Structures are given as C-alpha cells and as structure tokens.
Amino acid sequence: MRRALLAITGLAAGTTALVVLKGSPGVSQAAQEPPAAAAPSGGTTTPPAATATLGAKPRASATTPAATRAPTARPTAARASTARPTSAPRATTAAPRATTRRVTGPVVENEYGNVQVQIVVSGTRIVDAVALELPQETAQSDRRSDQVDGRYSGPSGQVVQRQSAEVDTVSGATATSESYRRSLQAAIDRAR
Description:
It contains five helices and four strands. It has 192 residues and is an alpha+beta fold.
C-alpha cells in the first residue's frame, strides 16, 4: 500500500513538472521512453507510470487511474501570436572593432632578385609581416633569403616587435635586407 501511495505521489509530481515544462516557451523537449524498471530484490516491479522520465509523456496503463493522467499541454493561439513591442536601438559603449587588412609593398629589385613584403594591420598596429617574394636564384641567395625572412617576418618577427621598418641588417644579406626594408616602408606608408 505504501509503495502504491509513493508511486502515485511521484507520478503526480512528475506530471506537474511535465505540465509546467511543456507550457514554458523556449524549453526544448525531447521525447524519451521511460527506462524499463528493474525488479527489486523483493520480486515486485514498479508500474511503468511511476518511473516516468522528465520530458517524456506518461503512458497510461491499467494501474494508472484516469484522474492522474497528464493532459497534453499545447501552446495556445494567443501565446503564439503575441509580439513584443519594438524598442529603440540600444546605445553601445564598446569601442568599434579594429579592422584587419593586408597591405602590400612594391617589388624592389636588387642584384640577387626581387623582394616584396606584405603586412597585416589591425587598427593601426602591424600584427604580421610576410615576404611574398625573395631572391631564390642560387643556393646561397636562397639561404640568405631564409635568414632575412626568419628574422623579419611572422607575428613574432622584428617588424611586429618594432612596429616600423627599422630592422637590423642580416649579416651577409645586406642587399636583400635593404630591399625588404624599402618594400616594408612603402607598405607601412600605404597603411596609414
């Protein structure tokens, strides 16, 4: 008798929660089957209606009285057709977001080949530098170009660190370093 009373009380509480949740706008509901009740050690089983899962529709059975069955809650037409009044746009106090743009310098020629630099600017700050073109004619010029690119380019290179074209000359790659600086300075001037 006590188990039956607890089962009905639990079912009533679950049904109330279901009705409240189904009636709330904006609540996502997933239809779930209640888990199968495992037989307790006493050998008796709990009726399926007493093990209802939150969000699932209770199933009517021979042991569930008709008075405790949950009514199906449906949104009313009045609730669906209500519109919120329009309000004035909110004023924002946040600063405008910085725009990120790419600015490319001109191609600068030297005796070993061409050099061209592109910078990425966020607001007024240089955040990246990329060598689009570097001398690659010989193994020696390729090695020197890699040294120049490694020192100046990238988000952690000298260009970003110093925020200018005042970068150190790479030893053994003076011509490529100077061409890089000239293309870089032109890109910085265009970005202003």
